[in-house]
Amino acid sequence: xxxxxxxxxxxxxxxxxxxxxxxxxxxxxxxxxxxxxxxxxxxxxxxxxxxxxxxxxxxxxxxxxxxxxxxxxxxxxxxxxxxxxxxxxxxxxxxxxxxxxxxxxxxxxxxxxxxxxxxxxxxxxxxxxxxxxxxxxxxxxxxxxxxxxxxxxxxxxxxxxxxxxxxxxxxxxxxxxxxxxxxxxxxxxxxxxxxxxxxxxxxxxxxxxxxxxxxxxxxxxxxxxxxxxxxxxxxxxxx
Length: 239
Hints:
Blueprint: H1 5-15, H2 19-36, H3 45-56, H4 61-72, E1 80-87, E2 93-100, H5 103-116, E3 120-122, E4 131-140, H6 144-153, E5 160-164, E6 167-172, H7 177-186, E7 194-201, H8 209-223, E8 228-233
Antiparallel strand pairs: 1-2, 1-3, 2-8, 4-6, 4-7, 5-6
Helix pairs in contact: 2-3, 2-4
């Protein structure tokens, strides 16, 4: 698959010098997951996935606890889950997932971000058919062969296992997320550099230098929106 997950994550982490922004996004996502089901990750698998991802971003326990307590307290604050699809420079494709309490505001802001940065919105389904929902895990301290062996012993099917820098990245079907996680934990692996359900492009494209600069401005503008939780795309941003 070739996507440099660690490099992308490091770039995002350096960009998020104001960590309050990314923490606020996680707080909202945790609250929604906890409110839609049991506020207990043991009984609420959606919440469990969010909490695992929050852990890889070092989200403070106080923020996690505050969001769960808010859900337990019966807050009337409600959010709609929205997905927008669009296009950037030179055939680049973008998916934007949002949580919002004002659909009209979010739609206007997302459209404006596309329009002001060389992109345009697409209709529903115009982009997602080129992406696959994928479970992605990253671990350190094991080789590809060791990871493959422990997953085979646990009878867990995966799409691919790739060594990237100091990590081994495992790609699996989304319904195998918990099976992969349990296989690792049963072998004493409880810390992950990545633990996500994400949207992976079936084919990545490379942009010219100028187009990539414009593309990154578009992605940054979308990611900076308060209601936007995730931005997925099909561009290889390189090292």
